[in-house]
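Worked example
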Amino acid sequence: EDCRVPMDHLLGGYEKLQKKLERARSGASTGRSSNALATFELTRPLVGASALGIAQAAYEWTLEYLSDKDEDGQPLLRQQRIQQTLADVATEIESARLLVWRAAWMGRNGIPMTAGQGSMSKLKAGDVAMWATTTLMDLVGPFAQTTDCPLEKWFRDAKIYQIFEGTAQVQRLVIARMQTADYKARVEEADDVLKQAPGNAPGESAVAGAVAESS
């Protein structure tokens, strides 16, 4: 408290501080929010991978649990209602896995996730983990509600992935905004390309250029 830090002890130096102050006075962005968002996009696939592990574990355990169960002399795994549910769970898990892999690959290769790919992977994996554990508990029946059944724990574990590092609702807002910004950027880029194309007059819009090209 009440500590005065000498100017030569500032991280980044005096000139960097002055530039930040000038940007702040002019109302320009300091870049902190965009940098923070980019960092979140890199870490969210890791969170998604954790949620995905819960969903996969729950799915595999349920397959093993039902493998020797039957109803009216018919194995449960051969009943259509069971197969339909397991197929949906498996498909959702694979969908989440592909989103996580794509985001992780983009992060590993330094490709900017400007369209919210990192947030998509976390959102989808978290929702799938919650939905899959709930669905599989319904499939297993009353035993799934006891502490002897691992599904009960995975069900509780899955919920946190819809809450921390950005709730599912916040994730949807982030994705929507990033998608909008990415779309506008792509439209502007396409517009610039069309303006430079032979035969297009200066200032001609992308729509007009596209119409001219198609005709």
Summary: The chain has a mean pLDDT of 86. The chain is about 70% helix and 0% strand. Strands lie at 70-71, 74-75. The first helix runs from residue 13 to 26.
